[in-house]
Each structure stands twice: as C-alpha cells, then as structure tokens.
Amino acid sequence: DSGVTQTPKHLITATGQRVTLRCSPRSGDLSVYWYQQSLDQGLQFLIQYYNGEERAKGNILERFSAQQFPDLHSELNLSSLELGDSALYFCASSAKIRVSYNEQFFGPGTRLTVL
Amino acid sequence: AQKITQTQPGMFVQEKEAVTLDCTYDTSDQSYGLFWYKQPSSGEMIFLIYQGSYDEQNATEGRYSLNFQKARKSANLVISASQLGDSAMYFCAMSDPAGGTSYGKLTFGQGTILTVHP
Hints:
- The structure holds two protein chains of two kinds.
- By secondary structure, chain A is mainly β.
- Chain A has strands spanning 5-7, 10-13, 19-24, 31-38, 42-50, 53-57, 64-68, 74-78, 87-94, 105-106, 110-114.
- Chain A is built from no helices and eleven strands.
- Chain A is globular and about 40 Å long.
- In chain B, the strands form three sheets. In chain B, strands 2, 5, 6, 10, 11 and 12 form a six-stranded mixed sheet that branches.
- The A-B interface holds A 2, 31, 33, 35, 42-45, 48, 50, 55-56, 58, 88, 90, 92, 94, 97-106, 108-109, 111 and B 31-33, 35, 37, 43-47, 50, 52-54, 91, 93, 95, 97-99, 101-111.
C-alpha cells in the first residue's frame, strides 16, 4: 500500500458526460501528479500541483481540469467525455521537491470506461 | 525534451534465472533521475529502484539492480533469481530536475512485459 488513495476505483459513463476523479496523497506529501495510461498513448503525464498551485502541465486536454485543495487532496475533472478518454488514471504524490529527483508513490488508479 | 525507449515489448525468463530489461534515454539535462516501476496485472504501479545522474555506483534494491551507463545513456534493470511473482509490466521512467521547468514529472517508456516460466 503506497498510502495514496484514489476514488472511485472504476467508473463507467457515457460520451458527453462529466466525471470527477479524486486523489488523496500520502500524509505530508505536498506534490500531486496526474497521469493517464491508455493502450495507444502509454503512460502520460497530465498535470502537477504543489501545495495548491499548478506547477507543470503535460498533454492535458482543454476538456480536462484539476485542482488541489487546502487539505492537499486533488481532483481531476474530465468533461465532454469521448470514447478515447477511456483509460487508467493515476495519481501520484511525492514528499518534497529535491534537486535531482522526485520519488513518486502511485495510487491504485481509477479505471474510466466511456461507452 | 526527455525520451525513454524500451525496445523489448516482451521478455521471457526461467524461474531462478537472471533477466535484463533494457532502457535507453535521451535528455539535454545534466541532472536527472531514472526510475523503474513494476505494474502487475492488478494495475498498480510499484516503485522498484532509482538512479541519480550523478550517482557513481549502480543502484541496488534486493534482487533489483540498475546497470547505469551514462555515456551510452542506458539504465537497464537487472532482476536476479526471477520469481513467478515477477511476471508483470516493467516501466523505465525519467525525471527532470525538480528545480527544472517540469518540477520532476516522470516520462515513461512503453514498457516491457516480463513473463517468468516455472
């Protein structure tokens, strides 16, 4: 158990809908990363928050947004869903920003299926 | 931009044998981190081992070791004494400096599926 929790574990919805994925980082971790894993794109970085502020953006669609709350949990909002958004969405957290590396602990993921 | 290449889509190994999973990387950064993660069929991502670009010795964690060859830009994972439970997808990943523009995000390779035969 990494200490990172994600809910829900599975989500099935229809095209055009909006969903919210939730992540609680390990206790004390200030940094939250979101990744998407799909068969065609592999594992891709979406967005990162550090202590409530957005720090880095990757290949995140405009239909997707995220935020980190004062209690450090984070939510990833996916709207106008398309079939291609079906994927495993991971949240990862890390304790602090170091100079050379940033060990990240991954949650169990949310498997999103868009029908 | 950083890039990770894993050229072995699948690997097979006999139980108790050693296996090497290949990983090459490309970056213009002088400071970076290299990671290996294991993803079993259940889907979770399990951190295995880390190597910093300035570390002179190869990293080891139990049965896992990372063969780091900086000049060749390779960071191969060696698993010794393979076990049936090692059957999984293995990802090589790279992190830019946390002080850099991407604040330590991970860039992943495409993964290698390892199958351990009894």
